[in-house]
Amino acid sequence: MVRNPWFGRNEPGQGAAFRLFCLPYAGGSAAAYRDWHDLAPPGIQVCPLELPGRGGRILEPPMTGLPQLAGALAEALAPHLDRPFALFGHSMGGLLAFELTRTLRRRRRPLPAHLFVSAAAAPDVPRTRPPVHQASDADVVGELRTLGGTPRELLEDEELMSLMLPTIRADFAALETYRYRPEPPLPVPLTVLGGADDALVPPTDLAGWRRQTDVDAGVRLLPGGHFFLHPGAGVMAVVAGAVGVSASATRTV
After folding, report:
1. What share of the chain is helix, strand, coil (3-state, %, to 5)?
2. What CA–CA distance (Å, rounded) separates 71 from 75?
3. What is the DSSP string of 223-246?
4. Which residues, including other chains, have CB under 8 Å from residue 224's CB and lie 6 or more apart?
5. Domains in the chain: ranges and CATH
6. pLDDT tens, 115-172?
7. Is the model's pTM score more than 0.85?
8. Which residues neighbour 108 within 8 Å (Cβ) at sequence distance 6 or greater?
9. Residues belonging to the active site
């Protein structure tokens, strides 16, 4: 059997009652969720997704558009939507999870029982940060320092950074060229998570997500800045609590 590269080494097993597909932030990989397997309660199978150009897919060309990524993910996940599932994405991954859900709806595929958007401004909120995907290497590295999610040792490793910069630029391009297109609200419960001290995506940028669903929506603020995702125990507690309510509500339209 050919291994699905979108799941790295952890193809979803058949014993799970509920799957949680996790999408990384810009420049991140499936490794961002490596501790979640141990944090998740029984019955929830954590499935970190590996995008092209990182992790075990480091030699693959990265994708530079969110619609392109969402379409490829919809195809990759299709065989694994045979039971209730949720989507979780942090920062860029949150916006990607949203567009993936809309892509699944357009293709009349099963929809998630719950959508979790973490540290991402509402999709119709204008972007205010200057674009960097075509900037100098030094400026791209400077943006990573500002975001705060990349270890200092990596930022100071010129050889490793030269290997990762094409993927990081592609992720920034996907974010900076994104154009929100209005569609009807999703028939999917939505939980938006934010950092109480996040200067990049302040709580005021989160409320607009409520316009993107016609069912339950809530905003949860957690301690920390933009990368309150680490450590993940507090985030997983929110996810597990919400999934317990919506795990039986998977819908197809």
Report:
1. 40, 15, 45
2. 7
3. SSSTTTTSS-HHHHHHHHHHHHHH
4. 195, 196, 197, 198
5. 5-127+182-246 (3.40.50.1820)
6. 999 999 999 988 777 777 777 878 888 888 877 777 778 787 888 888 888 998 999 8
7. yes
8. 252, 253
9. 91
